[in-house]
Amino acid sequence: MYPKYSDGMIEVIVGPMFSGKTEELLKKLRILSYAKFNTLVIKPSFDTRFATDQIVSRNGLRTPTHSLKNIKDIHNLLKQEKYQAILIDEAHFFGDEIIEVCDDLANSGYLVIIAGLDLDYLRRPFNHMAQLMAIAEKVTKLYAICVQCQNIATTSFKKIKNNDLHFLGDTDEYEARCRKCHLKG
User: What residues are designated binding site for substrate?
Assistant: First the structure.
């Protein structure tokens, strides 16, 4: 399943909206369950699009989760039960403190798998996601299909007028686009 690393590592799954990041994270959860890993699943409480207490992929896969407002609250959950792995969905919604938290968790021997957007709707890196990719042992970049030209899409294009970087939305507000079609607007 994984190459042999020291105890503790960080794996990051990134890509634009509609690329299957949550589905990939849930696939990792299924594999970890086969390996008898007790896994803590986290998402930001800000993300209420599909459910407040579950991670839900667009293809209908779902699993119960702990929703946290502050990623540092993960330490309270770790005191309640023994875990070997921690999965975090929509990590771009957490602030820069996620970098130190994930690094400390990996240094403490946990397998930490993080999924989130690498770029905002303006094609600028989410700073903490870029830093997490830099310290990760493994990075997977997923792609979607551009709705304009059907080439590989690496960006999330915001279709509505709203400058908020943390704006919840789905197909009515966003679409996957390639670089060329994103720049066309």
Answer: 174
Binding residues for Zn(2+): 146, 149, 178, 181
DSSP for 152-172, written as a single string: EE-EEEE-SS---SS----TT
Q: What is the pLDDT of residues 149-174, one digit of tens each?
A: 999 999 999 999 988 887 877 778 99
What are the sequence ranges of the domains in the chain? 9-142
| Contact criterion met (CB below 8 Å) for 174 and 58 | no
With tokens 């009515």, the residue in question is 172
Q: Which residues are annotated as a binding site?
A: 15-22, 89-92, 146, 149, 174, 178, 181
User: Among all residues, which ones are annotated catalytic?
Assistant: 90
Cα separation, 126 vs 120, in Å, equals: 6
What pairing do the DSSP bridges indicate for beta strands 152-153 and 144-145? Answer: antiparallel
Q: pLDDT by residue (tens digit) across 8-22? A: 999 999 999 999 999
The pTM score is 0.90
CA distance 177 to 144: 8
Domain range 9-142, its CATH number among 3.40.50.300, 2.60.120.10, 3.30.9.10, 3.30.450.20: 3.40.50.300
